[in-house]
Amino acid sequence: MNFLKLLNYVGKLHRGTLISVRHYTPRRALMYVPGDDIRKLSKAFTLNVDCITMDCEDGVALNKKETARNTIRNILDTEKNVVKRNYDRAVRVNPVTSEFCQCDLRAVLTAKYLPDTILLPKVDDKEQLKWFLDQVNSLIIERKEIIDLIIYVESAVGVINFYDNCKYAIELSQTGKISLAGVVFGSDDLCASIGITRSSDGAELLYARQKIVLISKAFNLQAIDMVHIDYKDLAGLKKYAEQGAQMGYTGKQVIHPDQIPIVQDAFLPSKRQVEWATGLLESFQEHQLKGKGAFVYKGNMIDMPTMKQAQNVMDIFKLTSSNV
């Protein structure tokens, strides 16, 4: 079966499978664009990238914060880039501990069109999440939309409290207007928090990097890996992106258009993975129709965690293969 036929078959299989297909928004490359730079924003909207993050935080100087939020608000107030688009339109606000977060939220969440996703940096504890979610819910209580939330782990305290923070955010989102969808590993801020000296292989970050992806997957969240700040080092970027994908990360932060294709390819399931997952889901469906639970596939006893892994492969492939 060639790759194009396989893609068509995947669609038929998903429509017929007995496993429910949950909504999944690909964010293989999460690209930051300064909110005060209309030229860069305009260019970003023409790129083939999964997630465009209009930034109010680190990418914007202190004296440009108001300009950034107003520019983003103007974009959200127009229909341009709202319909017929294939990217996740996100906004990164300033952290709760800053003086800017409330103003960011008021500007962004009272726009004519809401962003798909809000990114909240530097989340350390449940009190910050409670304040943030209360603000969001109060601003969009009358609207029908549900916004995805992505939180950042960027400090020693944030790493320690990460499990409790995820659990708390999910509990609060059950009755609110925002849904926790993913987590970003903020490696550079974590280094500053701990006093880490970065090495070329990143070994000093291994514990935090693995803990974040482990807990993220425990809550069925996307995990966005650390940024590669040397944007000209494409070979190093490829190595780190492939390593992150092997560890279980679903995407990576990018800061330059040249990084996008390398990152998005690294987090796209291979033909071999897709064929494995397709066959496994088909076999599962056949056994379910016969009333059989456990079954053997290619010599291995299949359990639900394996089925979930296959479903994850198909979720990503199905939603990122429009350009195949």
Automatic annotation (TrEMBL):
UniProt subcellular location: Mitochondrion
Membrane-spanning intervals of the chain: none
Domain HpcH/HpaI aldolase/citrate lyase: start-end pairs: 28-257
Catalytic activity: (3S)-citramalyl-CoA = pyruvate + acetyl-CoA; propanoyl-CoA + glyoxylate + H2O = 3-methylmalate + CoA + H(+); glyoxylate + acetyl-CoA + H2O = (S)-malate + CoA + H(+)
Residues annotated to bind Mg(2+): E154, D189
Pfam families: HpcH_HpaI
GO BP field: regulation of cobalamin metabolic process
UniProt entry keywords in alphabetical sequence: Acetylation, Hydrolase, Lyase, Magnesium, Metal-binding, Mitochondrion, Transferase, Transit peptide
Entry's Gene Ontology cellular component terms: mitochondrion
Gene3D superfamilies documented for this protein: Phosphoenolpyruvate-binding domains (3.20.20.60)
Family: Belongs to the HpcH/HpaI aldolase family. Citrate lyase beta subunit-like subfamily.
PANTHER family hit by this protein: CITRAMALYL-COA LYASE, MITOCHONDRIAL (PTHR11105:SF0), CITRATE LYASE SUBUNIT BETA-RELATED (PTHR11105)
Subunit organization: Homotrimer.
Name this polypeptide is given: Citramalyl-CoA lyase, mitochondrial
